[in-house]
Amino acid sequence: MKKNDTTEKVNTGNESSSGMKRRNFVKLLGGGIFVFIHPWNFMDILAAAPPQQRTLPNDYNAFLQIAEDGTVKCFTGKIEMGQGPITSLPQMMADELNVPLEKIKIIMGDTDLCPWDAGTWGSQTTQTFGPAMRAAAAEARGVLTDLAAGVLKVPASQLEARNGFIEDTKNPKNRVSYGQLAKGKRIEKFLEAKPPVEDYTKFTYVGKSYKHSDATVKVTGQAKYAGDIRLPGMVFARILRPPSHGAKLSTVDLSVAEAVKGTQVVRDGDFIAVLNENRDRADEAVAKIKAEYTFNELKVNDSNLFDRMVGADSRMSVVRTNGDLEEGSKLSDKIFESEFHDPYVAHAPMETHTALARFEGDKLTVWAATQSPFGLQDGLVRQLGLPLEKVRVITPFVGGGFGGKSMYTQGIEAARIAKLAGKPVMLEWTREEEFFYDIFHPAGVIRIKSGIDKEGLIKLWDYSLYYGGTRGSDTIYDVPHARTVNYSQLKDSVAIHPFGTGAWRAPNNNSNTYARESQIDIMASEAGIDPLEFRLKNLKDEKMIACWKAVAEKAGYTAAKTPSGKGIGLACGTDAGTWVAMIVEVKVDKNTGKVKVERVVCAQDMGLCVNPQGALIQMEGCIQMGLGYTLSEEIQFEGGNIKNRNFDTYEIPRFSWTPKMDCVILDRKNMPPKGGGEPAIITVGAAVPNAIYDATGARLYRMPMTPARVLEAMKKA
Amino acid sequence: MEEKIRFTLNGKKTEITTEPNQTLLWVLRNQLGLTGTKYGCGTGFCGACTVLINKEPSRSCTLPVSDVAGKDVVTIEGLARGGKLHPVQQAFVDHDALQCGYCTPGMILTAAGMLMKNPSPTRQQIIDGLEDNLCRCGAHTRIIDAVETAARQMKGGK
Fold this sequence. Notes:
The complex is a heterodimer. Chain A is an alpha+beta fold. Chain A is built from 18 helices and 28 strands.
């Protein structure tokens, strides 16, 4: 056996079905140099949502491949839903491997090809991908250098990776390309160790702006989303849905639906679907089903919900505590008590939940619009009783997620129907289904009791959360006597949320930042201190102070006591490891109560910024989307009945809402990269009400700040 | 009853046999294979399904296919000519005026239709013209910039 044919393998300990998967995988991809990673060395299992926490596979999944043509293929379980990793991850890869950017090919969200991943959420992609890739790339460079030492006949220590070649540093013409080194070989390396910390400053691609690499396919209509995949024999499905959550099917007559030309009806208990190769006929058939329901709903609606939360028998847990609240009260000159209400909010991505399912023998493939291809794979295994290796999930482009597509019910439904029908099934939820079955941002109540001394220093901070969530509930400010308490669903008690809730872009941080930053403003105003000065006085966090300096400078901020009549509002917070400070300017129509956000200035410290252009676009997107939960978005419901099920009654931000935006990303090249997809949204819902107060003297304790609520608050002011 | 419906689709004469009440969106996507036109809400509120009918931006999710008989239909697949992107498409690429890309075809066709009628829109007219097209990712500010740029370039300016 020649030396170059060597296949390096280590004993994986327990090479069961997953070992088989790796071998099949390598066969599928041909020759080259492979670096496999064990995902658990890099991924934070706690970052996975509970349903996605599977038994650790004893598996090494391919991570990168240097193919025989010199292409570097990178396989990741992350998905592209507009947040830009399809552009930024190859940038990181190119730098780590010293290879031109155009040589990198990224393969995303395919459970047969990509390493396991918890899901694309929590602004984790750049943070977790970076270290894993750095280690894989270092390993690959080691292999390439060793091989090149043999080919170039110089010691490895004299070699350097440069632009896709391994070069002799003493004679740069003596070089060999990665492709040449990979040719005719199959080398497999396995990573055990965590990657070393590396110097971010020497990068070529990282830190430079690149436009979306998927823009051309998206402007020409060529980009394929799950609903765009076509298979021979494929039919369109519609599912019979109940009129409200909690309604139970009592009687059903399917005969009229079955009479619609070309319709097949499938049924498994209460799960009933109509199929037709013509989508219009599927719509017609499902509408013709005659069904009766019984109702046993909670007596709750969007008005009495908040009292119900506060009055419920709840599980109480202390999130954090320091000092002594009684002592804090004693030290306080003024005490402030406030209660903030936050409703259910929908994700409303433009693409509804969509999936195409196909069985070939006992092998199931599902193409799905999902933020969690591996979560869906697990779900299919559980709910259809299939072995893991017989289930493949492929994620094409995803038309927006924002957390909503971490829920993958439509993929399970499509597979169930495909199994019942014996043919490939396309299931595209209607917009009404999308609103009805969304896992909404949870409604919640936040109560704050706080106190300041004569100097305007915060001495007391007693913070209670009811049924929202704790992300972003950190005090941030330097308070000696503070406590955060969370009230949540008591096990075996009546459910407080009448329907599904889940993660909505920067989950619950929007609510917490709204409550905290409103309370800060209330205190600043009462103390007669400019709200920026008040914040800086009470902050010790240097990153936050730096963000405030940057944003105040950009905004041209001038100090004033509130309400000044100018309509300026401030807010800050942290999310996904990133610090954000924001100043907004609003105009309030005092006759109609309508709020127009004129300008938003935002500064963020996100550590090393991989693609400044991409990060800027995420900040702009956060600001625009944030206007929705602030000013108009709210699910109206009565019991289990969702009343707003389309865009006529659920209003999302439009072009006329767009403010002038100035975004600043602090230069932090020496720090590890942090999240960018969510942070800037958290401060919108806090800075805007503070600006409304500055403009009108009216304080809003209820999201969203609709014209009617603004008028009502102005009457009280 | 099925009948033959003839129309021009992306510059080509097209004849299909279908029931006349079939939805134009589904006919385009499922019968003619043009999946660039998207389903967003099914009721004409969001604009993801926008196509040009006789140069007029129209919501294909609420139109029966019989409505386009004898007319000229342009979908996102038919906007680029001879491998060259339409100026609006090019401006969307240049301004990075998209994220998930799902509303993009409808946005581009709405903008293209608007510029055919009014080659010199003000920024406010652009905003008004796009007001009923929804984007959830929040690419609005870049989309407005892109349409301004496209308008300038289509008039031969820079």
